[in-house]
Write a structure and sequence with these properties.
By secondary structure, this protein is mainly α. It folds into two domains: about 325 residues, Fumarase C, Chain A, domain 2 (Up-down Bundle), CATH 1.20.200.10; about 60 residues, Fumarase/aspartase (C-terminal domain) (Ribonucleotide Reductase Protein R1, domain 1, Orthogonal Bundle). Helix content is about 65%, strand content about 5%. It has 21 helices and four strands. Strands 1-2 form a two-stranded antiparallel ribbon. Strands 3-4 form a two-stranded antiparallel ribbon. Helix 3 crosses helix 11, helix 7 packs antiparallel against helix 21 and helix 17 packs antiparallel against helix 18. The longest helix has about 35 residues.
Length: about 475
């Protein structure tokens, strides 16, 4: 069976590495590795299994005849037993001991945990790349003063770099959650039909030997944690925890993408636009923020998918029901493929955000007189003016200047109105000096420096080895 893409997440959006991880070959070869680990463990604990049988199994781990599997599954209506049959045909000497004492969830559940753990590592690498990109962007633009917005209405000034620290902080929170989830990944182990290890008690007739099985299998599969108790499956809360973590990354990415779309509309920032890229099939002049929009679209899918395992975890019956199976086969790989695609896009955009400083300044200066009225008022009072009288005049002039801008599309003339009023005793040059944007953005530049030094750099240093060899190329 070829690794055929059956979803746009595979063929269009996600990386080759993530696709290969969730491919049929990856899944079913892991089943076989688990059967080898089980046989090795049983041999070590005294079951009559030979090295010849184990070596035969190892030789055919990646040798899967999917036609035979498919034909057999149509007959027996059981995917695991179809693979046991095909593996046994390839390994006639080992056939009697393949899957000995195990239930289907031994391979299906342990494989899911293994693949999710590997997928988390791929996601972590891309997340660190984005964090590093935004760190550089924040530092490079820490002094670029711009309008701040609340309710998407002009508010106090900030800087382009300071705004980027908000995106960064969300991702650092996501990385902390990812680290927690990664450090708490546990294998199911091999506990049997209802989690009691009854089959192994019959097989070994020695509880002390049976107690060693989980740990030995986990060690062979590269894990140091196993669920202490289970039904037939690991608790489905694990899937919910993992997809919630992916949902949080999606939330952060989508917030960034929304901000980019808003600021691209204001012509202040722009996502990369390649030489031959077409923005619209009808309007050739357009430079649509299509990558940011795709982040929003894919992130929405990840956030929605997080509901699936939550509902599954809440509706499991006693030691095992099968209503989880089809659902988790879909939602878990899709969530990883989608968030992988999201982070590829995020890394691509954040590596080369275009900053239009002149437009930023023009937009800021249009609104700046309104924001500096308190500063103007204080300076006029220090020159002997009456605060109440001046406050009322500024209020009236502000309304008139606002009308000029909104109703007639004329420039903001608030500074000229105030300068022309002798009551203020301020020249236009003095007012413009008061309205120096660099003096009206608080600690923003220093906040960027402090945040990067104290919060971001330690993360980059910790994961500097992950910054090599990560492709940010967007397929389409």
């Amino acid at each position: 069976m070829e690794n055929i893409y059956v979803t746009p997440l595979g063929g269009r959006y996600a990386s080759k590495e993530m696709n290969e991880l969730w491919s049929a070959n990856s899944k079913y070869s892991t089943w076989r590795k688990l059967w080898v680990a089980l046989a090795e463990t049983e041999k070590e604990l005294g079951i009559n299994i030979t090295d010849e049988q184990i070596n035969e199994m190892k030789a055919h781990i990646n040798d899967i005849d999917y036609e035979v599997v498919s034909k057999r599954e149509k007959e027996c209506r059981h995917d695991v037993m179809a693979h046991v049959y095909e593996f046994g045909e390839k390994c006639p000497n080992a056939k009697p001991i393949i899957h000995l004492g195990a239930t289907s969830c031994f391979v299906t559940d342990n494989t899911d945990v293994i693949l999710m753990t590997q997928a988390i590592k791929l996601i972590k690498q891309k997340l660190v790349v984005v964090i590093n990109n935004l760190k550089e962007f924040a530092l490079n633009n820490k002094d670029v003063t711009c309008l701040g917005y609340t309710h998407f209405q002009p508010a106090q000034l900030t800087t382009v770099g300071k705004r980027a620290t908000l995106w960064l902080q969300d991702l650092l929170e996501d990385l902390e959650e990812l680290e927690f989830v990664e450090s708490h990944m546990k294998l199911l182990g091999c506990k049997g039909t209802t989690g009691t290890q009854e089959s192994f008690m019959k097989l070994f007739k020695d509880e002390e030997l049976v107690k060693q099985i989980d740990g030995k299998i986990a060690e062979k599969m590269g894990f140091d944690k196993v669920y202490a108790v289970s039904g037939q499956t690991y608790t489905r809360k694990l899937d919910s925890r993992v997809l919630n973590m992916l949902s949080e990354i999606a939330q952060s990415a989508s917030k960034f993408a929304n901000d980019m779309r808003l600021l691209q509309h204001e012509k202040e920032l722009e996502e990369p636009f390649e030489k031959g890229q077409i923005g619209s099939s009808a309007m050739a002049y357009k430079r649509n923020p299509m990558r940011s929009e795709r982040i929003n679209s894919l992130s929405r899918h990840v956030i929605a998918l997080a509901n699936d395992p939550a509902i599954t975890a809440a509706t499991q019956w006693l030691e095992r029901t099968l209503d989880d199976s089809a659902n988790k086969r879909i939602c878990v790989p899709e969530a990883f493929l989608a968030i992988d695609a999201v982070l590829i896009l995020y890394a691509n955009i954040s590596s080369n955000i275009v900053v239009y400083k002149n437009v930023i300044k023009t937009n800021m200066m249009q609104e700046l007189p309104f924001m500096g009225t308190e500063e103007i008022l204080m300076n006029a009072v220090l020159k002997g003016g009456d605060r109440q009288e001046l406050h009322e005049k500024i209020r009236v002039y502000s309304m008139e200047a606002g009308k000029q801008v909104k109703e007639f599309g004329l420039p903001n003339d608030l500074v000229d109105r105030i300068a022309a009023d002798k009551t203020f005793d301020l020249t236009k040059e003095e007012i413009l000096a008061i309205l120096n944007p660099d003096h009206l953005c608080g600690r923003a530049p220093k906040q960027v420096e402090d945040f990067v030094r104290e919060k971001v750099e330690p993360v980059i240093e910790k994961y500097k080895n992950l910054l090599e060899g990560v492709s940010t190329e967007v397929n389409v």
